[in-house]
Amino acid sequence: MTYENESKVDPKEDRGPGDLTLLNELHRKEIWEWKKKESEYIQTQNLLEGSKRIIDEMGKKVIEQDRIIKQLEQEIERLVAENKK
Prior knowledge:
By secondary structure, the chain is mainly α.
């Protein structure tokens, strides 16, 4: 086969299981699928971490608000008791 004839040969002509171009394409597709899964995992992980931070911050604010409410209730009780005197 001469150089001129090689350019006319269809590279997809032999697509048997041992064909290197086929294996290369399959490998590239598999790598792409894994990269997509990794990207989804990273996105989900970031969302989870952000949600955890929000929950922690809100939990701290709820505890602080509860403390303030208790202080105000005690102040109300004190003022009511003073008013009764």
